[in-house]
Amino acid sequence: MSVSPKVLIVDDEERFRTTLGKLLTVNGLDVKTVGSGSLALEELGQSSYDVILLDVKMPEMDGVETLAQIKKIDPNIEVIILTGHASVDVAVEIMRLGGYEYLLKPCPMDELMEKIETAHERKMAREQRAQKTEATRAPRTS
After folding, report:
1. CA 131/CA 125 separation, integer angstroms
2. Is the dihedral of CA 4, 50, 54, 90 positive or negative?
3. Measuring CA to CA, which residue among 116, 122, 124, 91 is closest to residue 8?
4. Cα→Cα distances 115→71, 73, 85, 107, 119, Å
5. Which of 7, 67, 80, 104 makes a 20 to 30 Å CA pair with 48?
6. Please, are residues 83 and 104 in contact by the beta-carbon 8 Å criterion?
7. In this predicted model, what pLDDT tens digit does every residue of 37-95 receive, in sequence order?
8. CB 57 within 8 A of CB 83
9. CA distance linking residue 78 with residue 43, whole number of Å
10. In sequence order, which residues have a C-beta less than 8 Å from that of residue 66 and are 6 or more positions away?
């Protein structure tokens, strides 16, 4: 892949998000970390991201509510849920809201990197299709 995905890690466990952020950075990704859903929404107001790694169980605003707000801000962002708490109901709700993937912690780094790359490629392909559609709709001047 020519362009490295810009990734936002959203997790209330500081040690987890710091360690994961360092591992992803070593693997060539552009990474930022925040500790809550509300901080993630603030960050999205300041910067754009390709992929968000989002925890489900967080105080104040949980991952499901955060996902719904993220998709209102930018429906093209791919969101991968990383959770230590498996729940079929939560997984179904996340997919309904537009979540890309639902993974259990701890997730092997090679699997996570593959999911991030695939999510990024999917986002780029969708943006290219949107640009082509927009170009065909643009009035021609001659």
Report:
1. 10
2. negative
3. 116
4. 19, 22, 19, 11, 6
5. 104
6. yes
7. 999 999 999 999 999 999 999 999 999 999 999 999 999 999 999 988 878 888 899 99
8. yes
9. 15
10. 10, 37, 40, 41, 54, 58
Give the span between the Cα atoms of 132 and 125, in whole angstroms: 11
- Of the candidates 54, 58, 100, the one whose C-alpha atom is nearest the C-alpha of residue 75 is 100
Both tokens assigned to 6: 């810009």
Radius of gyration of the chain (CA): 16
Query: Cβ distance 20 to 53 under 8 Å?
Result: yes
Residue-by-residue DSSP string for the chain: --SPPEEEEE-S-HHHHHHHHHHHHHTT-EEEEESSHHHHHHHHHH---SEEEE-S--SSS-HHHHHHHHHHH-TT-EEEEEESS--HHHHHHHHHTT--EEEESS--HHHHHHHHHHHHHHHHHHHHHHHHHHHHHSPP--
